[in-house]
Structures are given as structure tokens and as C-alpha cells.
Amino acid sequence: MPTKKQLQKIRGVFSPSPKAEAKKNSAIAIAKAVIHLDILEQHKKKMLTEVQWLISEAHGKYTTKYRSLGSISDGNEALQHEHVFPRKKLSMRILEDPSNVQKYLDEVIGCVVTKDEHDKLSSAEKQNPELDGWARYRAAGIEVYDMEQNPPQKVQW
After folding, report:
1. 67, β-bridge pairs
2. Cα Rg of the chain (Å, integer)
3. What does the DSSP 8-state code read for residue 156?
4. What is the reported pTM?
């Protein structure tokens, strides 16, 4: 759970981290190396999951560019860092088509949501396992804002 100081940042305008690009490039290099190693597939999946965390948190765990309406409201609800494109699905795509690892990892996007919104996303995905990316948010009825814009702009699907 974020501190009060972190909550102020969460509700503020997105500020890109100067180290984000280097972090992302480093994580992608790890993924490219891992997919070609002669190791168990379950270990590759685990490492690809970790790579996705590294990329999605490159600007900070709770200071992502995209944040839900609930997360930027004044409530005290617990917040979560959510992957717009579920890690498991992306990992499977990478393992099925390793030549496009860069393309798939470019799809890694973090979005801060409330615990309740996270539950709604999970429920929407269980009802329709084909949902992916922003379509999950649309199906769950979650408004998302691009915090890089000043004032923040609602993401249009």
C-alpha cells in the first residue's frame, strides 16, 4: 500500500523517469537471452514474467503513465499495479513466436487501479478469456486516464 507521499505522486501528473529507457532495454536484453537458453519452459515463463514487471515499473510502481479514475480519486482504497496485457498471455506469445520478442515487450503497459477495479478486470477476463489489453478495461467499465497530459485525459478506446 502506498504511503501518503506516494499517493500525492499517484494523483499528480506523470513524470517520466530518466532511467526508464535503459531499464526497458536491459529487461528486453534479458528476455532475448532467456528465450534461447536450454532451460525448462517453466523457468523461461518465470523469467519473462519478471522481465514484464521490470518494464511496467520502469517509471515507478504507482506512478505509471496510465491510472484508473478510482486510483486518482481521493479515496483510501488499496491500489495495485496492473498489467494491461496480462503477463501470462504475453509470455506465451513470446515463447510461441520468439522472433517478435521486442514487439511483444513493447506491449507491456502498467496501469494503477484500485483493488476493486482489479477484481472487476479479473472477473471480466474470466467471463471472456479472449479479452486482452484495453478491451479488458472497457468490458469491466473502468475509466483510465493518461497522466502525461495536463490536465489528464481520459483514454478513448
Report:
1. 112, 145
2. 16
3. P
4. 0.91
pLDDT tens column, 108-119: 999 999 999 999
With a cut of 50, which residues of the chain have pLDDT below it? Answer: none
**Sign of the CA dihedral 78, 79, 83, 88?**
negative
Q: Which residue, among 51, 56, 74, has the nearest Cα to 17 in the 3D structure?
A: 56
Q: Mind listing the pLDDT tens digit for each residue in 12-29?
A: 789 999 999 999 999 999
CA count, 13 A, side-chain hemisphere, 50: 11
> Order of strands, edge to edge, in the sheet holding 66-68?
79-83, 110-114, 66-68, 144-146, 153-154
Distance, CA of 147 to CA of 155 (rounded, Å): 10
Question: CA-CA distances (angstroms) from residue 81 to 10, 40, 60, 115?
Answer: 11, 28, 10, 9
